[in-house]
Design goal:
Rossmann fold, 17 helices, binds NADPH dihydro-nicotinamide-adenine-dinucleotide phosphate, 3 domains, five-stranded mixed β-sheet, 445 residues, Glutamate Dehydrogenase, Chain A, domain 3, seven-stranded mixed β-sheet, alpha/beta
Length: 445
Amino acid sequence: MNIDNLMNDLEKKHPGEAEYLQAVREVMESIEDVITDNPQFNAAGIIERLIEPDRVLIFKIPWVGDDGEVNVNLGFRVQFNNAIGPYKGGLRFHPSVNLSILKFLGFEQIFKNALTTLPMGGAKGGSDFDPKGKSDAEIMRFCQGFMLELWKLIGPETDVPAGDIGVGGKEIGYLYGMYKKLAREHTGVLTGKGINWGGSLIRPEATGFGAVYFAQEMLATKGENFQGKRVCLSGFGNVAWGAARKIQELGGKVLTLSGPDGYIYDPEGVSGEKIEYMLELRASNQDIVQPYAEEFPGAKFHAGKHPWEVPCDVAIPCATQNELNEEDAGNLVSNGCFCVAEGANMPSTPEAIEVFLENKVLFGPGKAVNAGGVATSGLEMSQNAMKLNWPEEEVDTRLHQIMKNIHEACVKHGTEAGGFVNYVKGANIAGFLKVANVMLDQGVL
Ligand code: NDP
């Protein structure tokens, strides 16, 4: 496989889709040797079929604001690959959403879902709608308009969307209500549902918990654990909240949180009521993390800066794509950080990843580290299919075991000659092999 030729062709077909091209290149670079060693994949055109989505739906959502004005947003669903199970992947509502970002996320989701060992294909969707500053009634009307287009494409055995940035329990509720009305069925068509209507315990915490379970396994390869470790987090959303709770439970100290406007440094640690305050900040629909510093004196707000300049042992970026650049990676390494686990999807730029790998930092890529969210969505689908609700301990135990298994798969496929584990390579190869072999079984489609 000639990666440059492949990428040139792809770029000609999809010019300007930077995030999508970045994600495809990263996977191709990891699996190059596997493709050379397994000519059957080339013979069956696996790569060419895998890098293009099965289909993309783009639609408009006109909705009326509280002020009587008509607004129009774009909606998307990218169904990437359903070799191993129904399409599965979240919906993101954020003004930055475009086709490139959703194709990158859908592509990554194929391998992430394969790593969980659960039967789920890869997809992603969303809209450039910004829920921030909107009333509940506006969010409801928008979600209903969105589902009016989406419902024909999805179903509990076809495509099961979930939440992502900007889509939490409230939005899932409005989306589910509209689907139920249109399809006249009460099935597990979405995950992240409310606990009284088919949701799973632990789902809200799952991505953050899973990321910390994965980091725990990474630390264990060095005979380390979270006890007494200084941890820098970014974001203050769902993933950061779950991660902060679990780190505190395991004896670590969370020093930072961040928003698009800057970061908070709390030398005493983000714990107890402070973690709950994160939820209040989120619920307040403000786009800033700054009030944390006013609420808890001792904490300091650093406007316009990234948290990666704070000395720490472990870093867990939990905000968004490309939020940790080469300079940030250099700062982390020179300050002694030896473990980076990506809670968000593709938060580190390719240059930052180079810095981590060159310096033999334990570096866990998002598709492995944050797979606990979709894994628990898979557990929600199992409970819905059985019409049962598992207790909290059962879901948490299964999540923990899945994260251990993903770590093991990364070690198996990513251990290099000197013993260093390249988790990027390990995750990409393990996920790819599973999907590629299933595609071979199922013929050219
Ligand atoms: P949320 O919307 O709950 O939180 C995202 C947080 O990051 C918000 O606090 C947001 O602030 C902040 N943020 C956004 N842009 C920046 C930036 N440039 N710099 C610093 N902070 C920023 O989303 P989630 O926690 O659900 O998702 C976070 C990441 O994790 C995403 O990459 C998502 O795809 C990934 N992920 C999420 C899963 C889940 O189960 N939720 C599962 C797997 C992956 P603000 O709101 O002010 O913009």
